[in-house]
Write a structure and sequence with these properties.
Mean pLDDT: 80
Number of helices: 9
Helix content: 55-70%
Shape: elongated
Largest sheet: none
Length: 195
Amino acid sequence: MRIDIYPDRLGWVYRLDYKKLILIVFLVRVILASAFDVSFSMTGKDIIVPDSRFYSLGGKYVSLILRGYDNYSLPASEAPSDKMGREVFLCIASDKGLANPFSRNEIYHYFYIIGITYFLLGDYSIWSRVINIALSLGAVYLFFKIARRRFGTLAANIFLIIALFLPTQFVYSITISKDILRMFIITLILWGIYG
């Protein structure tokens, strides 16, 4: 049996409504991120990216500092109880961290993003997961725009389907990791050059 792939067999790919598809994938990822966040808060262990706790703590301390606390006025209930937490908080509260937002350390920039999110929306790690999902889908969308302009609608839609359902992309977007922010910035630069 011979199967020919003609453009008429791929007509559904041409007619793909990318906005609806991205919205559906966003909602599915938010639901999975919520379930993962509940699992993380119950067990205290992040099986995918163990650094999530570190970034979440850093964001929490940045939000506390934005609320007016420092290392002398921090309430005992909010004080870090473990050694890593104390070191992170003191580093953020010192001149190396929050006092110098123009430092070249990208960890502090990510702490700022999470901290401002926690400051505005509350100290819930689901918000930083939703931001990572949005940044991940934003990077895919920008690549889609580049591909549609450079290679045509069919190639761009095929790329979009593959990129949206790529397992590693899907899993890492629901974690708290600075790699998604880095990917979005690189994609934004590429879109500025080639888009």
